[in-house]
Amino acid sequence: MPTASADDLQRVTELIGRAPQSEFEVVVREPADDPHGEPVVIRNAPFLHDGTPMPTRFWLAGRDVYRAVSRLEAAGGVRAAEAEVPAELVAQAHARYAAERDAAIPGDHVGPRPSGGVGGTREGVKCLHAHYAFHLAGGDDAVGRWVAARLAPTTASAPTTASDGTS
Questions:
Q1: Burial code of 75-88, b = ≥16 C-beta within 10 A, e = fewer?
Q2: CB-based burial of residue 59 (10 Å sphere; 0-12 exposed, 13-18 middle, 19+ buried)?
Q3: Label partner for 161 (CA 20 to 30 A): which of 96, 126, 143, 147?
């Protein structure tokens, strides 16, 4: 996994309010065509610096979009997404997320491994932020699309999704 630049480390630390506890790379920026643009989504290594498994592969770091998703969650968005997005599509998103994360674990790894799907969840919807981050990074996530559809009317310049998981 590429290591974040010093500038990205500093900016992501400011955005999330603490230093990241694992290696990461910025995979979605705003504007998307600027390699030095504002970090919106980061992709975490599957293990923290101390070796602890990190189930959350994609993290929504962009301040404005994080707040918008937080408002959606506070308005009952998790329950609404679970009611509106078919359980089979949620399960498929969890499986794709876990496969993407697990592919980054060295084949000779011994010891605990991250588990679960989106944000470490095994089933259902736990965190709209994690689903939306995966969607923006190019992941096929029905809950992330559900979030995008609800944010579109309220977000003047919603980030565009990455076509290949990078920006």
A1: eebbebbeeebeee
A2: buried
A3: 126
Read off the pTM: 0.90
Q: Are 101 and 47 in contact (CB under 8 A)?
A: no
Backbone angles phi, psi at 82, to 5 degrees: -60, -35
Alpha carbons 42 and 110: distance in angstroms, whole number: 26
Residue-level pLDDT at 166: 39
Backbone torsions φ then ψ of 53, nearest 5 degrees: -60, 140
Q: Which of 65, 2, 75 is nearest to 35 (CA)?
A: 2
- How many whole angstroms separate alpha carbon 28 and alpha carbon 61? 10
38-53 pLDDT, tens digit each: 999 999 999 999 999 9
**CB 85 within 8 Å of CB 97:** no
